[in-house]
Amino acid sequence: MTRIGEYSPEDVLKMVGDIPTFPSVVSHLMKQLRDPEAGLEDISASISGDPGLCVLVLRMANSPLYRPGFAAPATLSIPRAVHLLGRKAVESTVLSYALKSMLRTSTLAEKLLWEHAVACAVSAAEVVRIMGSKNLDTAYVCGLLHDVGKIVMCRRFPEAMHAILEDQYNQSSEDSWPSSVASEKSRLGIDHCQVGAVCLNVWQCGEEAAVACAYHHRPRDAGGRSVWPAVIRVADLLCHKLEYGPIRCPAMEMGPVQRALRIETAEMTFVLDHLRTKIHEALSAFAETPSA
Ligand SMILES: [Fe+2]
Ligand SMILES: [Fe+2]
After folding, report:
1. Quick check: is 72 in a domain?
2. Ligand 1 centroid distance, CA of 73 (Å)
3. Domain range holding 134?
4. Which of 41, 156, 216, 249 lies most in the core, judged by the most C-beta atoms within 10 Å?
5. Total count of domains within the chain
6. pLDDT tens digits for range 142-167
7. Distance, CA 212 to ligand 1 centroid (Å)?
8. Which of 57, 204, 218, 65 is nearest to 145 (CA)?
């Protein structure tokens, strides 16, 4: 396994124990989605074998995210939904299903981590759209998975992680926040960036997602691979500002984000409003869907 970040994969595995596995339908679909020989019919057949995933794929295909303005008629057919979404959006949907399956408990901390994952996915896609890139799907996956290390650590160290997340949630100003990375390292000896990057490597979610995850709190350390970590850093700040997730800072000064996006204050207000609506739509599409 390639080393990304300061710990070797073996060190991380020693510290967190077993890495959770994806539901078998997800692992199978991830292979199919990357196999150019596998057609949309094969992918549809795999999805059709899992009722929970069928519901989610249909919801996504019929959501305002992929059916803006409700121009096209709603579909109840999996092959049609897969065709409407396309391979990349099916991959994001399958990965969302996998992530949701890891969040079985209904604690506030896990609910906030789920909201943050979806919000950061939507924000990252918006960030690259504003920057003029077409890689919206890669951005979405990187945003969705950037804090997956926190979810894995919540399963391995539930008490310590819930205490760290609760501390962050209860802080009222940006200055008083303990950095999640520093708190995790001092209490558990490792942080969610390292854990997440190793998990994403094991799950074969793509190098972009693993690098974005490893360096999203310090993009400069990624050297020549800093593009995705920097995108996720900006998306993360937008989520803090909009209060999606355990870290909430509605009063955050947006100067650094505006400079990164090269936009003026008036446009920033528009971006935040637009983003709030899109995140709400995405969370509604996932609400109440069964998990694996
Ligand atoms: Fe993070
Ligand atoms: Fe985050």
Report:
1. no
2. 39
3. 9-21+104-286
4. 216
5. 1
6. 999 999 999 999 988 989 999 999 88
7. 10
8. 204
Tokens at 123, concatenated: 């924000």
> 0.85 cut: is pTM over it?
yes
Residue 124 forms part of a structural domain: yes
167-191 mean pLDDT: 80
Q: How far is the CA of 116 from the centre of ligand 2 (A)?
A: 7
Report how far residue 105's alpha carbon sits from residue 149's, in angstroms, rounded to the nearest whole number: 16
Q: What is the pLDDT of residues 185-200, one digit of tens each?
A: 999 989 999 999 999 9
Q: Is residue 93 part of a domain?
A: no
pLDDT for residue 170 is more than 80: yes
* CATH code of the domain containing 124: 1.10.3210.10
**Quick one: tokens of 95?**
């990965």
Q: In this predicted model, which residue has the larger pLDDT, 14 or 141?
A: 141
Which ligand does the CA of 235 lie closest to?
Answer: 2
